[in-house]
Amino acid sequence: xxxxxxxxxxxxxxxxxxxxxxxxxxxxxxxxxxxxxxxxxxxxxxxxxxxxxxxxxxxxxxxxxxxxxxxxxxxxxxxxxxxxxxxxxxxxxxxxxxxxxxxxxxxxxxxxxxxxxxxxxxxxxxxxxxxxxxxxxxxxxx
Length: 142
Ligand code: AMP
Fold this sequence. Notes:
alpha+beta
């Protein structure tokens, strides 16, 4: 757990702070976001105390992966949204405020939901191959 500092989400999971709980199992805890971008905006957390997605154990990640599709399905059905975004802000400069891993499920409606800026560049083949080499050589087990 090294330099992990307890967050408000740990207190929610522990039942010390109330939330609108949607789901829990051995690995995962999910509740409604208190500042929703749209109706049904849900946060999905591993119980494991890690700040960033890349720090998660395989077990915690597998638990998240197992729960995510059924939670997306449930939120979509419950809200009637045709579409949704799943978002992870990882790191302060990427917009992360609470330093306990969490995924946002954000239903998309005509006027509400996640509004993204997507300034696409162009992938250069040579750079891409060098990059692929570096990424591949950095793939490690957690
Ligand atoms: P992020 O910017 O990805 O770290 O997102 C943190 C999210 O946690 C924000 O969307 C907040 O609205 C939400 N949040 C913070 N405190 C609470 C709380 N007590 N209950 C529910 N959601 C919360």
